[in-house]
Amino acid sequence: MQTSRGRTYEGLAFTFCKAATVCLLCGRYALPVAAGAAAVLYVVAWRHGQRTTRCFARHPLAIAAFWLTVVLAWSYG
Q1: pTM of the model
Q2: At CA 76, angle to CA 27 and CA 66, rounded to 5?
Q3: Of the candidates 41, 26, 21, 42, which has an alpha carbon nearest to the alpha carbon of residue 74?
Q4: Residue 64 belongs to what domain range?
Q5: Which of 14, 16, 20, 42 could cross-link to 64 by cystine, CB 3.0-4.6 Å?
Q6: Dist CA 18 CA 39 (whole Å)
Q7: What is the pLDDT of residue 55?
Q8: Is the pLDDT assigned to residue 37 strictly greater than 70?
């Protein structure tokens, strides 16, 4: 099934809408909150059998490790 351009742009807009909502709700803590949530959710997905992702990195545990590193760097920075 082919996706229309309008649907593609709406999908991108929705992604940025979610990011903006996190920023609005969390302010200066948006990065560690979003990164921490991503790390936890990727680990949970992996534990439930999801071994690939739509992300370019493809491996849930590698992505979780990256975002955990971001949270730790933000915490010590």
Answers
A1: 0.82
A2: 80
A3: 26
A4: 5-76
A5: 42
A6: 17
A7: 83
A8: yes
